[in-house]
Amino acid sequence: METLKKIIFTIAIITVQNYVHAQTEIAQQKAFSASYVAESKYNYTEAINQINNVYLEQNYEMNLRLGWLNYLAKNYTNSVKFYEKATMLKPYAIEAKFGLIKPQAVLESWDKVIKQYESILSIDPQNTTANYYLGYALYNRKQYEAASKHFEKVVNLYPFDYQNSIMLAWSYLRLGKNNEAKILFNKVLMMSPNDASALEGLALIK
Amino acid sequence: MYRLALIILLCSVGLLKGQQITYGYIDSLSYAQYIAGDWDNLIQTANVAKKADITFPLLNMRIGYAAFMKGNNSLSLKHYTNALEFDSFNQDALYYAVLNNTLLSRRDAAAYISLNLNDDRKKPLNVGYKKWVELIDVESSLKPTNTETRKVGQYYRFGIGNRINYRWRLYHSLISYRQHLLTPNNDINSGPPNRNKPTTFRSYLANDYQYYLKSEVFLNSKLSLINAFHYTSTYFDNATYTTCIVNIGLKLTQPYLDYKLELNVGQILGSLETQVAVSSTYYPFGNLNFYGNSRLSFQTGTNISQINYAQMFGFKLSSKVWLETHATLGQIKNLMDNEALYIYDALDVGKFRIGASLLIPFNSKFTLLTSYYYEQKQLYLQNTKYNLNSFTIGISWKL
Asked: Which domain CATH number covers B231?
């Protein structure tokens, strides 16, 4: 009889727990749904409020969503905080890192942007977006050798990619590798006939 | 018009209703204040943003510029440094960080920061470039006394600074010091002292030749390692004595002040001297209108243990003249000062010293230094005190 009582009690607790959990999930789903509706109407404050009503600090999805919505609401410092939380909750998720880069770029926190791209590449070394933008940031800092390595990686994967090819050509030119630059500028002219940037680069070599 | 716009802005963002301070509010407000040149309120906005835990590079840049316009180089430097933490290649922030350091007479810190600054902005500031000769300075002192037994001391120094790279600088000095000293002839065969018989003196020449080398390396933007070596060869009474002092120091540079911890060790005329010193240079108003330096040192050696406190205050008297007042308290015997550039190893012990200097920059390259100090001294092995007056003139040339 005692054993039966214990079993019934345990089943009751599990049932209540499941019910509460299900209700919480439903409330979260509803909040996310309402938040998407508000976002589609450009009502970002309402979209943020919907998530805030069910907000859990340890929830990756909520922090990611709030990072995005605060970014749209142009509340960039808050956006950074939520994206940072998301990256800490799931350190191997590159979507949160790409998300974090957006407000950091608007705030012109280029050191932090570069750090995020490096972090993404440590997880996904062949990521073409991260390689291109990291290369671009390094090129702007006149770190041509480092920049060319990232462009090379993408050009090896996508030899007919315009953006990486033209940047690699310019990096070579800045490094004094004129022959390699010339070959690439000419290839770019096949991808983008009469491309002004490629013609400018070729003129500098001649 | 600007005030009206500001009130509208405050109302529109709901601040007057006590709503939350957001990035958007701080961004808009600081931008409006920046455009209007409302530097005082812009600096206040920094405090509001700090309380709300809102910081972003553009805000730091705006406040940095406001502080620069108000003549507070330290505050300006602090905010530009914050901006550089977000983007170490931010050219505007680098430019003003270098400029602020230069205006605070911190050329080494300016050189370190200038690494990522593009040449077109770096060249007019003339910092951080490798130079075999970055600085030349000369100084000369005459040190008359009010006792017949100590003739006028003559001190000459020639210095030259080399910049090895953006973080490393060397400084060399060649120094000469000479003074005639008289001591009574103690002829034991001449009998007891006789008032009618004039005392005869024997003359000695103390002649020093010195070489000083200092290296300062910035380990990062705040911490620098200082090493110095001072060699002295003294000719006295037909004998030669050598002195070698090694200085090791660490300096922490902050926008409003810097701290230095140093150790000086070496042999002075057979006595092993060890000195530990802490010092700080500070700019309470963030500029050179008023500044100070305090140094506390503890020195031990053979038959010697002394504590010294040195205090300097500097004031800007006019756009071209600075006055520095300085005092050193405590017994001055073999005292090692100014990163071991100056070693006060005279035969006679000093009791205290007080003085003043005038610094007159003719332009950005040449600065004239004139200095005076009074020192009370005591004759060697006697209780007789005498006064020493030191008059210095020097010039420095920054290339």
From this structure: 2.40.160.40
